[in-house]
Design a protein that fits this description.
The complex is a heterodimer of chains A (about 450) and B (about 325). In chain A, helix 1 crosses helix 12 and helix 9 crosses helix 10. Chain A has 2 domains: about 210 residues, D-Maltodextrin-Binding Protein, domain 2; about 210 residues, D-Maltodextrin-Binding Protein, domain 2, CATH 3.40.190. In chain A, the strands form 3 sheets. A 5-stranded mixed β-sheet of chain A has the order 2-1-3-11-6. A 4-stranded mixed β-sheet of chain A has the order 8-9-7-10. Chain A contains 19 helices and 11 strands. By secondary structure, chain A is an alpha/beta fold. By secondary structure, chain B is mainly α. Helix content of chain B is about 70%, strand content about 5%. Chain B has 14 helices and 4 strands. In chain B, the strands form 2 sheets. Chain B has a two-stranded antiparallel ribbon. Chain B has a two-stranded antiparallel ribbon with strand order 3-4. The chains are: A alpha/beta (about 450), B mainly alpha (about 325). At the A-B interface, helix 1, helix 3, helix 9 and helix 11 of A face helix 6 and helix 13 of B.
Chain lengths: ~450, ~325
């Protein structure tokens, strides 16, 4: 999922979701420097009928896609139901085996969990013919190794990059290029920012899911596979890549540049508005929320750049969130659901609508086409399309979010342990070994 | 064998019918079938919405289940895992800290406030009573947002006031003990009104003659409070104590909303409670069996705490 899934199911932060979501859609329309009209050559097909039910939050990425779909298929009914606690309701419906919607916007880790149990509609038949038109790193997230097939349609390309204040970097004599290494370049930049009395990179007290998201990025960039191997068979959260990731986080923290504020709270936005926070590591879907929450006078002066690299030639990005459009296996409208999925993220009309809303669809023809010309209120005249596309093409293919990912990075494993390591209270090697041991104990719960 | 006549008490010459206990019960049920029919909706609804979920949870606590697919038998594995978990021990410690600090404050504060609000000398008592109850009916989500705004390190009003008077900033949301204080303040803000109402009801049941008699004996206001009010309010104080204990052992909303980015744990896991862990285990980590087991551990703690309080109350009365 794009804007509201902070690496976990979103029911827990409903008030942030509501605040951000309701404004984000407005930002997506008002804040965009350029929004693209759907391709004019859309043929109308009145023969297609049926009803699809979708559950999601208000102001959803699929809303714009829905409008375009109905232009092409006017006799289809798309029943979009905005439900505040849709995550809990969906899980309940799936557990009951009845009452689930036809379409749902699902996190990668849940795709692995539900797909692995055969609870999702397999979409291998529609994915295989179009595989080459989808970004491989994102396509991987719809693949369930244990079932040997695809489940759902990859939705939101949640690549992540550096958001930075170009004007302040210029004042400080700092150059953000696309060829930085974390060490020594990025750490030196952070130290310089700290010396100037500014802040860079959010790190909330206690770390929380921001810390685990950062760990995810860096683990992928160091060549890790995530908390487990991609087949979910073995624990890898204690491997060298993972330890390197935590070490890097510690070094970033020790530069003194990090902003200690809770995620996307008034304090965070105030730091941006006051030009205190001048650089942060953010997923692409953050743009809409930024545009909704920061003052106009600080829009247009931000720029985006790829992450520094952790290893020479390694990935220059990571993922945070990013959903897959799925359908439960119990749907009575399988064929219609597949048609919608293909339209949404494997057609120019759907991809354009998704891009206009503010997410980055994984459809390569769109990314290499209209997306290249996209400008936004936040990033001013910078054409962000080429940068995000480059990052998307550099996504690690070795990194996986398996069925155990949510629990592994969650409160009872990594999230509760990582802060002490960052702060130097616990040795990283032994700390990550403890984390690995905890995950080892519960991993069988997530193996089908 | 003879039986006694039920009206006169004289021995009856009629033999006692030899009816078995089993048929007697069914006979009784049939005899009172209309009454049972009228009270059955309660039991049906109770069975569906309380009984069945309770039985299912008990069964689930012995399984491994991700919310999808077939549960797998795990025996006492969930309970073992929980009782060995450092995180659970830490959360239990936090819960006990909140209990030890909040329980006396809630009881003492609400009794004093209720006594003041019950005093005829206070003008605008009715308005004040409404104002005290308002926090209880205010959305806790909105309250959490306001508390975050008030308490945040750099731009919060509380730190602004503290800096102005020369105390300096406090990390209300970023340091362990201040984070606990933040939760305590938010709980107090919401719980005071309801408990003041309960106490007020109890106070209004105390006969005025007792206070008159105390006045005649020369008791001042403080003495009347401790020697008339408190003893007469024992039952209400016990009720507030037990209900507050149950609420505190189930503390979830305030830490979760104030510290949502750390799954309700806060800095250094300082405000993690058993319930925040239960929620994250179920809905974040999808380990529903373990969450169910934790629910029963919490229930056992509540039962133990309640029994202890009742024992102490009886001992005090004796």
């Amino acid at each position: 999922m794009a804007k509201k899934n902070f690496n976990k199911s979103m029911s827990r932060r409903s008030f942030l979701k509501m605040a951000g979501a309701s404004a984000a859609g407005l930002a997506a329309t008002s804040g965009l420097g350029s929004a693209f009209a759907a391709p004019a050559s859309q043929e109308v097909d009145e023969s297609l009928t049926g009803t699809l039910v979708f559950w999601g939050h208000g102001d959803h990425p699929l809303d714009y896609i829905r409008v375009e779909f109905l232009k092409k298929y006017p006799n289809v009914t798309l029943d979009w139901q905005q439900i505040a606690d849709h995550a809990a309701q969906f899980k309940t419906a799936m557990a009951a085996g009845t009452g689930a919607p036809d379409l749902y916007w699902m996190e990668a880790t849940d795709v692995a969990l539900y797909g692995g149990q055969g609870a999702l509609l397999e979409t291998t038949d529609i994915i295989e013919p179009i595989k080459d038109t989808l970004i491989p790193g994102k396509l991987n997230e719809a693949y369930v190794a244990s079932m040997g097939g695809y489940f759902g349609m990859p939705g939101d390309l949640s690549v992540s990059g550096i958001f930075y204040r170009a004007d302040i970097m210029e004042e400080l004599g700092i150059e953000i290029t696309d060829s930085l290494m974390y060490e020594p370049d990025f750490l030196a930049i952070l130290s310089q920012i700290a010396e100037a009395g500014k802040k860079a990179v959010l790190y909330p007290a206690g770390g929380g899911f921001v810390a685990t998201a950062q760990w995810s990025w860096f683990d992928a960039q160091f060549g890790g596979s995530g908390p487990t191997t991609c087949d979910n068979a073995e624990v890898t959260i204690g491997d060298e890549a993972s330890i390197n990731a935590v070490n890097l986080m510690k070094k970033i923290y020790e530069t003194g540049a990090t902003l200690e504020a809770d995620f996307w709270t008034p304090e965070y936005w105030a730091a941006i508005n006051d030009s205190q926070l001048v650089l942060d590591l953010c997923p692409a879907w953050a743009r809409g929320f930024w545009e909704s929450n920061i003052n106009d006078d600080v829009k247009g002066v931000w720029r985006v750049a790829p992450f520094p690299r952790a290893i020479p030639g390694g990935p220059n990005t990571g993922v945070w969130g990013g959903a897959t459009l799925v359908s439960p296996a119990t749907t009575q409208n399988a064929d219609l659901a597949k048609i919608f999925m293909q339209f949404a993220f494997a057609s120019m009309e759907g991809a354009t609508a998704a891009g206009n809303w503010g997410i980055i669809p994984p459809y390569i023809p769109y990314l290499e086409g209209p997306f290249q010309e996209l400008t936004t209120a936040l990033f001013g005249e910078q054409k962000i399309g080429p940068i995000w596309l480059d990052m998307a093409q550099n996504l690690s293919l070795d990194y996986c979010r398996t069925a155990a990912y949510g629990a592994a990075t969650g409160a009872d494993v990594l999230e509760s342990s990582i802060d002490a390591m960052i702060k130097g209270e616990v040795d990283i090697d032994s700390g990550m070994q403890d984390v690995a041991d905890k995950l080892d104990e519960i991993l069988p719960d997530y193996q089908v | 064998m003879t039986t006694q006549n039920q009206i006169s008490g004289a021995p009856s010459l009629m033999p006692t019918p030899q009816i078995s206990t089993r048929s007697s019960i069914w006979h009784q049920i049939w005899k009172h079938r209309i009454e049972y029919l009228l009270i059955s909706p309660f039991f049906i609804i109770f069975g569906i919405f309380h009984g069945y979920p309770l039985a299912f949870s008990i069964w689930l606590s012995f399984q491994k289940w991700q919310g999808i697919g077939e549960p797998r038998w795990f025996g006492l594995g969930n309970y073992e895992r929980l009782l060995k978990s450092d995180r659970i021990i830490g959360a239990l410690g936090n819960t006990i800290i909140f209990l030890i600090i909040l329980l006396p404050i809630i009881i003492g504060l609400t009794l004093v406030l209720a006594t003041i609000l019950n005093s005829p000398q206070i003008k605008g008592r009715k308005v004040l009573r409404v104002l005290y109850f308002l926090p209880y009916i205010t959305s806790v989500v909105i309250v959490a947002i306001v508390f975050q705004l008030l308490l945040n390190n750099n731009s919060g009003w509380i730190n602004g006031i503290l800096e102005t008077i020369g105390i300096g900033r406090v990390g209300w949301l970023t340091e362990a003990w201040p984070a606990r204080v933040s939760v305590i303040l938010m709980v107090l803000w919401g719980a005071t009104g309801y408990n003041v109402l309960i106490m007020l009801g109890g106070l209004q049941g105390i006969p005025a003659e007792l206070y008159d008699a105390a006045s005649v004996d020369g008791a001042d206001t403080i003495q009347k409070f401790f020697f008339v009010t408190v003893p007469m309010m024992r039952g209400v104080i016990l009720f507030v104590g037990i209900t507050s204990t149950i609420g505190l052992l189930n503390l979830f909303t305030q830490p979760w909303l104030l510290f949502s980015s750390t799954s309700g744990s806060g800095p250094d896991q300082a405000v993690a409670t058993l319930n925040t862990i239960q929620y994250s285990t179920a809905f974040q980590s999808a380990r529903y069996g373990e969450a169910a087991a934790l629910g029963f551990i919490i229930a056992i703690l509540v039962i133990i705490a309640t029994l202890v309080q009742l024992r102490l109350a009886r001992a005090a009365e004796a």
